[in-house]
Design brief:
Blueprint: H1 22-44, E1 49-54, H2 58-74, E2 77-78, E3 86-91, H3 96-115, E4 120-125, H4 131-140, E5 146-148, H5 156-165, E6 170-172, E7 193-197, E8 199-200, H6 211-215, E9 219-220, H7 223-235, E10 240-244, H8 261-269, E11 276-280, H9 289-296, E12 304-306, H10 314-320, H11 326-339, E13 344-351, H12 358-371, E14 375-380, H13 398-421, E15 427-435, E16 442-447, E17 452-456, E18 465-473, E19 477-482
Parallel strand pairs: 1-2, 1-3, 3-4, 4-5, 5-6, 7-10, 10-11, 12-13, 13-14, 17-19
Antiparallel strand pairs: 8-9, 15-16, 15-18, 16-17, 18-19
Helix pairs in contact: 1-2, 1-5, 8-9, 11-12, 12-13
Bound molecules: 5'-deoxyadenosine and iron/sulfur cluster.
5'-deoxyadenosine is lined by residues 94-95, 208-209, 308, 310, 348, 350, 379, 381-382, 384.
Length: 483
């Protein structure tokens, strides 16, 4: 296993070609880029800076930490704003809105670039996996310098070199990959917690979802590589990890030696020094009794399950290709609540899927009322070209979608507030994460169930897990006090 602290970039011989081993090859390009950056900084008379804009999910957030680690190793300095010498957008394309945002932001970057001759712009993430996006960039956004995709993100060092060597747009997007390249540098946003990828891609092909097309086939990392990574994070001060995958419950299916997610989770929870484990996202169809049992029997595993339901109507669920029914979903949530009465369940819900009737929508509201989510991400269906749902009949008119969305949000929020109030007056363990943004005498931290708590404390406590009494529920968060 590589350890970035053990790698001396000065020892890499740049007079030879890049090594064959993929990780070593990328370190070679980090060393090479470092030379370019040093020369540019000398010429400009100031350090070269970078800024990363991250859109979308936890996976992208983790990928951005890797990009940040690589740029820092190259000698770029992180800037707070987009007035930087390299701006990277790590994009999301799960809904059309996400794409629109990126195009809008690119327009602004174009103006900044006019004032800074050193400025370069790079685009990666899910959006760039779509060929119509790349065509549009080539046609109308020619000031973009580098475009790469999700499958070859590990090539970032090599691509930065190509970008710095070229004055034309460099485009390198792969259709897919079976590669998992381990052990490149990463820089964590928080010193005390980290995401850890356990698998990439998705094989579920829900009929509305673009993810399987842009993130590719499901691939699991080997359990030992995951455990080693977590151990080295713990050695580096991390107390909480979030295991990341589009569908963590099918972890291990692609490995030569089958290991289930429940088995992996049990092993992760055994790592000495690690205080908390979370994971995301769970697909209801694959959530096993073993997993419930492992969760229930470990107090290191957070009492939080994100279990996207998407719709409460069995008829719509079938058209969505979700492979469970309203009844089986409710049975599952009942079983989970029986095993862990203090569990917080959260979910994703889509309204306005093609063919959705008022009756279907009532089933969704009914599920929300029965499960009583502690929070829910609610989305209006967005047509994604290339997915089966995009060509289904019965696309729902926007005003009906909006009306259902409003009613859903109202129900979700009312129940979420009631669920929050339920725990008022109790004491919980809170990981202190940062100084409160509004009041510097307070800290903001997170309970195991993912709710935020604001409480008096000093910055020296950040990164510690503290006992906090939840003095007052404010609907979606608490005001608390340490005990
Ligand atoms: N339209 C609306 N929401 C979508 N999601 C995925 N694809 C779409 C789409 N086409 C939502 C799902 C998923 C979450 C990450 O995004 O609810 O769980
Ligand atoms: Fe998309 Fe379904 Fe895969 Fe989630 S499980 S990423 S919704 S295809």
């Amino acid at each position: 296993m590589y350890n970035e602290d053990d790698i001396d970039l000065d020892q890499i011989d740049l007079t030879k070609g890049p090594p064959a081993d993929e990780t070593a090859c990328q370190y070679y390009f980090i060393a090479k880029a470092r030379g370019y950056i040093q020369a540019l900084a000398r010429e400009a008379g100031r350090p070269m800076t970078f800024h990363i804009g991250t859109f979308g999910c936890q996976m992208n957030a983790r990928d951005s930490e890797k990009l940040m680690g690589i740029l820092t190793a190259m000698g770029y300095v992180c800037a707070d704003t987009e007035e930087a010498d390299l701006v990277v957008y790590n994009t999301c394309t799960v809904r059309e809105n996400a794409n629109r945002k990126v195009y809008g932001r690119l327009g602004r970057l174009k103006r900044l670039k006019k004032n800074n001759p050193y400025m370069r712009i790079a685009l990666c993430g899910c959006m760039t996996q779509e060929s119509q996006v790349v065509d549009r960039l080539r046609e109308s956004y020619r000031f973009v310098d580098l475009v790469f995709g999700t499958h070859n993100i590990f090539q970032f060092p090599q691509l930065v070199c190509r970008m710095l060597e070229s004055d034309r747009m460099v485009v390198e997007v792969w259709e897919g990959t079976d590669k998992i390249v381990e052990d490149l540098p990463a820089q964590r946003k928080y010193p005390f917690k980290s995401g850890v990828n356990i698998m990439y891609g998705c094989d579920n092909f829900c009929s509305y979802c673009i993810v399987p097309y842009v993130r590719g086939r499901e691939r699991s990392r080997g359990p030992q590589a995951i455990l080693d990574e977590i151990q080295s994070l713990v050695d580096d001060g991390v107390v909480e990890v979030m295991l990341l995958g589009q569908n963590v419950n099918s972890y291990g299916k692609t490995l030569a030696q089958h290991v289930s997610f429940a088995e992996l989770l049990a092993q992760v929870a055994e790592i000495p020094g690690l205080r908390r484990v979370r994971f995301m996202t769970s697909h209801p169809k694959d959530l096993s009794d073993d997993l419930i049992q492992v969760m229930a029997s470990s107090d290191k595993i957070c009492r939080h399950l994100h279990l996207p339901v998407q719709s409460g109507s069995t008829r719509i669920l079938e058209k969505m290709h979700r492979r469970y029914t309203k009844e089986s979903y409710l049975q599952l949530t009942d079983k989970i609540k029986k095993a862990m009465p203090d569990i917080a369940l959260t979910t994703d819900i889509i309204v306005g899927f093609p063919g959705e009737t008022e009756e279907d929508f009532q089933h969704t509201l009914d599920v929300v009322r029965q499960v009583r989510y502690s929070s829910a991400f609610t989305f209006q269906y967005s047509k994604r070209t290339g997915t089966p749902a995009a060509v289904m009949e019965g696309q729902v008119p926007p005003e009906i979608v909006q009306d259902r969305f409003d009613r859903l949000l109202e129900t979700v929020q009312k129940i979420a507030q009631e669920e929050c109030a339920r725990w008022e007056g109790t004491t919980g363990q809170v990981l202190a994460e940062q100084v409160d943004r509004q009041d510097a005498s307070l800290l903001t931290g997170r309970l195991g169930n993912d709710r935020l708590v604001h409480f008096p404390g000093d910055p020296g406590m950040i990164g510690r897990i503290l006992d906090v009494r939840l003095r007052e529920s404010k609907g979606f968060y608490y005001m608390g006090e340490m005990i």
